[in-house]
Amino acid sequence: MDRLEELKAKYQPVLDLIKRSGVVLSHVHVQDNKLFIQGAAPSQDIKNEVWNQIKAVDPHYQDLTADITIDTSLPQPAPAAGAQTAPAAVTYTVQAGDSLWKISERFYGKGHLYKNIIAANPDKLKDEHSVIHPGDVLKIPPATAAAGQS
Predict the structure, then answer these.
(1) What SS3 class is residue 92?
(2) What is the per-residue pLDDT for 143?
(3) b/e string for 5-24 if b means 16 or more Cβ within 10 A?
(4) How far is it, in rounded angstroms, from Cα 59 to Cα 138?
(5) H-type alpha helices, the chain
């Protein structure tokens, strides 16, 4: 068995997940005696799932190089039968001292995802320079939707 087939066999659970999850691979070959996988995932959650699978196969993945980027323009995979539907957006009433960054940190854990809040409120927010006031009610898209933007 050549090195490529040996490594593909070892990481088959990863390759299967990649195929099921809509990750688009641009390279799968041996480089520096390691399996080199390069591609784009449709979301941060899927990229994380791929990395979790890699670590499940080999926690040290010393014989693997994976370069997985995120391309949110890729189609999201269909949910598995019986899967929960995505959570709906919630509303948040702006408090004194709030900023879009702070609100994003509160809901997503990452301030730089504030653009998701802007996108969810086109009637109130035009861009990052939009002013918010205490009492404004904003739609906050679910964290799963925002995760793809990190």
Answers:
(1) strand
(2) 72
(3) eebbeebeebbebbeebbbe
(4) 42
(5) 3-10, 12-21, 44-57, 100-108, 114-120, 143-147
Which residue has 């980027």 as its token pair? 69
Q: How far is the C-alpha of 138 from the C-alpha of 100, rounded, in Å?
A: 10
Q: Using N-to-C axis directions, what is the helix angle for 12-21 and 3-10, rounded to 10°?
A: 70
**Both 13 and 65 in a single domain?**
yes
Could you tell me the pTM of the whole model?
0.53
DSSP per-residue codes, 27-49: EEEEETTEEEEEEEESSHHHHHH
Q: Which residue has the tokens 């926690």?
A: 59
Q: What is the pLDDT of residues 90-121, one digit of tens each?
A: 888 899 999 999 999 888 889 999 999 999 99
SS3 content of the chain, % helix, strand, coil (to 5): 35, 20, 40
CA angle 45, 34, 24 (to 5 degrees): 35
- CATH at residue 110: 3.10.350.10
| pLDDT for position 74 | 82
**Whether residue 57 is found in the same domain as residue 109:** no
